[in-house]
C-alpha cells in the first residue's frame, strides 16, 4: 500500500489542509484546495475512485464538487464512491447547491455510502476494508477516524479518547491529528501524541499541524514520530 500525504496542515497555515491518498485511488478527506493540489502534484484525477470523508468540516470535504465535476468532464463511467458519516446525502447536496454545481447531473456520478455503525467494516473496490471508528470532535457528531486493511490508521480530527487508542492498536502506522502543543477537546496536542507513543511501539505521523506545533515538533525530535511535509509518502 502506497500512502501519500497531500496535505499536513491546519486551516491557518500555508500547508495544504490535511488529506491522504492511498494507492493514488482512495482519498481520505478532500479539503479546501485538495483538487488543485492533486493536479499540481501530478496525480491523475481519473485514477481516484473513492473518497472517505472523516467529518463535515470544510477543511475535510469542501473540494468534493470540484473532483466530481472534473471526473464528469473526463466522462468517467464508474461513479465515485464516497464513504461518509450519516447525513452525507443531505450534506453533499447542500454543498453542490451553494457552489451552484447543478448545471450538470452529478447525482449518478457518485455512490454515497453512509456509515451506519462505528466499527462496522465497509468493503470497496474488492480490496479495501475500511473500518470507521467514531472519534471525539466536540459537537460535530459523528466524526470518524478510519482503519484501512488493518494497516493504516487515520484519526481524522479528534481529541484524545479510547477510539484513538483503538485506531493505534489496530494499525501498523497512524496518521494523527496533532493540531496543538497542548491537546484540547476537539484536537490532540503534542502531549497526547507523546502519551500514545509511550504506551506502544507504533509509529505515528503528525498531521493537521499548526505552524507553531510543527516548529515545536521539529525541535523536539520525538522517537517514532514523523513530522511530514506535504507530499511525504511511504509504503506499508
Ligand atoms: Zn474538524
Ligand atoms: Zn480539520
The average pLDDT score comes to: 97
> How many H/I helices?
7
Distance between the termini: 5 Å
Radius of gyration: 17 Å
What sequence of helices (H) and strands (E) makes up the elements? EEEHEHHEHEEEEEHEHEHEE
Largest sheet strand order: 6-5-4-3-2-1-14
Name the ligand types.
zinc ion
- When the domains are counted, the total is 1
Quote the CATH topology: Metallo-beta-lactamase, Chain A
Q: Let me know the largest β-sheet.
A: 7 strands, mixed
What structural class do the secondary elements suggest? Answer: alpha/beta
CATH superfamily: Ribonuclease Z/Hydroxyacylglutathione hydrolase-like
Write the layout of secondary structure elements.
Blueprint (H helix, E strand, L loop, with lengths): L1 E6 L11 E4 L3 E3 L5 H7 L9 E3 L5 H4 L2 H10 L6 E5 L3 H11 L11 E5 L7 E3 L3 E8 L7 E6 L3 E3 L7 H8 L3 E5 L12 H9 L4 E5 L3 H10 L4 E2 L6 E3 L1
Parallel strand pairs: 3-4, 4-5, 5-6, 10-11, 11-12, 12-13
Antiparallel strand pairs: 1-2, 1-14, 2-3, 7-8, 8-9, 9-10
The protein binds zinc ion (ZN) (2 copies).
Amino acid at each position: 500500500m502506497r500512502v501519500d500525504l497531500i496535505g499536513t496542515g491546519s486551516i491557518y497555515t500555508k500547508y495544504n489542509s490535511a488529506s491522504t491518498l492511498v494507492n493514488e485511488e482512495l482519498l481520505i478527506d478532500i479539503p479546501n484546495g485538495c483538487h488543485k493540489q492533486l493536479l499540481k502534484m501530478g496525480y491523475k484525477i481519473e485514477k481516484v475512485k473513492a473518497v472517505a470523508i472523516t467529518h463535515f468540516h470544510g477543511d475535510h470535504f469542501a473540494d468534493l464538487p470540484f473532483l466530481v465535476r472534473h471526473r464528469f468532464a473526463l466522462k468517467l463511467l464508474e461513479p465515485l464512491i464516497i464513504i461518509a458519516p450519516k447525513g452525507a446525502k443531505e450534506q453533499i447536496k447542500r454543498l453542490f447547491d451553494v457552489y451552484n454545481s447543478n448545471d450538470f447531473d452529478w447525482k449518478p456520478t457518485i455512490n454515497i455510502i453512509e456509515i451506519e455503525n462505528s466499527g462496522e467494516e465497509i468493503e470497496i473496490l474488492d480490496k479495501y476494508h475500511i473500518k470507521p471508528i467514531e472519534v471525539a470532535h466536540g459537537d460535530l457528531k459523528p466524526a470518524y477516524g478510519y482503519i484501512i486493511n488493518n494497516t493504516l490508521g487515520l484519526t481524522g480530527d479528534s481529541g484524545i479518547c479510547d477510539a484513538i487508542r483503538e485506531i493505534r492498536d489496530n494499525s501498523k502506522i497512524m496518521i494523527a491529528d496533532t493540531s496543538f502543543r497542548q491537546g484540547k477537546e476537539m484536537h490532540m496536542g503534542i502531549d497526547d501524541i507523546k502519551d500514545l507513543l509511550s504506551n506502544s511501539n507504533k509509529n505515528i505521523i503528525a498531521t493537521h499541524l499548526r505552524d507553531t506545533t510543527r516548529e515545536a515538533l521539529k525541535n523536539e525530535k520525538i522517537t517514532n514520530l514523523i513530522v511530514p511535509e506535504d507530499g511525504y509518502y511511504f509504503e506499508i
